[in-house]
Design goal:
Length: about 325
């Protein structure tokens, strides 16, 4: 097992996690932390645990030798915790639900729900805030659904074969999904139609994760199907972070074997930047022996840029761990 030494910079996401969760504790009337809901007055213990978690995960992600494994682990823990709370809620534990009102746990409904109801609620605002703060990090560490696609893609060897017709499939489905939702809205269709549609989309998504992602060695659901993933690949540019491949690249193609998001095909490498589906996850960094794949944030160095992105993303991840539930 590769050992990592503790880096003092890991205290920054820990402090930020404490600061954000203390604000939530003070400002939001309803108890948001799980411990606070069961043991009023003891929420600060959960805040400290989450701060320690943020420092630990930051340290593991900071080291490019361990970052891919720990990104997968931490993302999976988050998603399992999220769905465990949902299951407990369905079994009658109201404290494990956000408001007591159940929704479909499908990312597509962040967009679909807002269009169908003509109302921008908590989830779309949360989602857009993450895009503004950390670009595509939603799809590398924050989404409760994509974590399972990540596990599925890594369950077999990752592949460097590009996903054929990926853009045609994802863009067509996105247009179909959006127009279907708009039509439901215009014709004021009964809720049951929306529920049936959402169920079909969710079931197809799960089938893609189970049957395609392991076989393709890529996160097929996230890069070819999910409408939120499609939105993020364009919306992420409102955020100033970027990934690029510098001119020292020798086109050895080793990194193309390490991208679960199908963003390091030959043409991407020749263009010296990962493709649109790149989520800045960092899984490829360790594969480039010359460190030619770099984070970019204005005039900061690649290392400083990556550290800043990790601080923001890990803080969001730890805060979501404490607050995200249906
Ligand atoms: S593509 Fe969709 S399911 Fe995948 S991580 Fe992004 S929002 Fe989640
Ligand atoms: S190119 Fe690298 S950082 Fe971008 S998605 Fe692929 S593995 Fe992650």
């Amino acid at each position: 097992m590769k050992k990592t030494t503790f880096k003092p910079i890991a205290f920054i996401p820990a402090f930020l996690t404490i600061a954000l969760l203390v604000i939530v504790e003070w400002k939001v009337k309803m108890p948001m932390l799980l411990v606070e809901r069961f043991f009023p007055g003891w929420g600060w213990i959960e805040i400290l645990v989450l701060a320690g978690y943020a420092a630990f995960i930051f340290n593991k992600l900071y080291d490019i030798r361990t970052s891919a494994v720990w990104r997968r682990r931490s993302w999976t823990i988050f998603a399992v915790f999220f769905f465990a709370q949902l299951l407990a809620g369905l079994l009658g534990c109201d404290e494990c639900l956000m408001t007591g009102k159940l929704h479909f746990p499908i990312p597509a409904l962040i967009l679909g729900g807002a269009v169908y109801r003509l109302h921008i609620g908590f989830m779309p605002i949360l989602f857009l805030s993450t895009v503004i703060l950390s670009g595509p990090a939603w799809c590398s560490q924050l989404c409760y659904f994509g974590a399972f696609d990540n596990v599925a893609a890594y369950s077999h060897k990752l592949s460097n074969k590009r996903l054929v017709n990926r853009n045609v499939v994802k863009n067509s489905f996105f247009v179909l999904f959006l127009s279907g939702t708009i039509l439901l809205r215009i014709f004021n269709a009964p809720l049951i139609y929306a529920i049936v549609g959402a169920s079909i989309i969710g079931i197809i998504g799960v089938l893609i994760i189970v049957f395609f992602s392991p076989r393709k060695g890529k996160m097929t659901h996230c890069v070819s199907w999910c409408p939120i993933g499609t939105m993020i690949q364009y919306l992420k540019f409102v955020n100033p972070f970027r990934m690029k491949i510098n001119d020292g690249c020798t086109e050895c193609m080793l990194c193309s074997l390490k991208c679960p998001y199908d963003a390091l095909n030959r043409e991407d490498i020749l263009k010296r930047k990962p493709g649109l589906t790149c989520t800045y996850c960092g899984d490829c960094l360790d594969s480039c022996h010359g460190n030619h794949i770099e984070y970019k944030f204005f005039r900061l160095s690649p290392v400083q840029s990556r550290n800043l992105w990790l601080i923001i993303t890990v803080t969001l991840h730890a805060v979501f761990m404490g607050l995200a539930r249906m």
